[in-house]
Amino acid sequence: MQVTRYFHTAVLVSDLERAECFYSEVLGLPKIDRPMTFPGTWYGVGDAQLHLIVADSFEENLENTEKWGRNRHVAFGVTDLPAVEQKLRIAGYPVQRSASGREALFTRDPDGNVVELSAV
Length: 120
Prior knowledge:
The protein is α/β, with parallel strands linked by helices.
């Protein structure tokens, strides 16, 4: 077997409208068609996708509260990290700079899912 392509990451959310506000409006991800009937939203990110799926029951799970990057997370490349950080802070989302010294930061969506944003 040879894996030849990365398709998507699925993120569980409790409130789709609130999650869409974060991923669509704050991060600016473009929605794409979604041929499913259960609640959720899909976004296109380069050649891959991010799938938001509404969970029947949702429990926030942050194993490492000190360093968010050492938890399950999804990572995106951004062209203007300082502008992204400012936008997140203005919108009221928490921000944690990468402890590694890389030009990256971590934030958490409304359900506490960790999102990494790295300068490209």
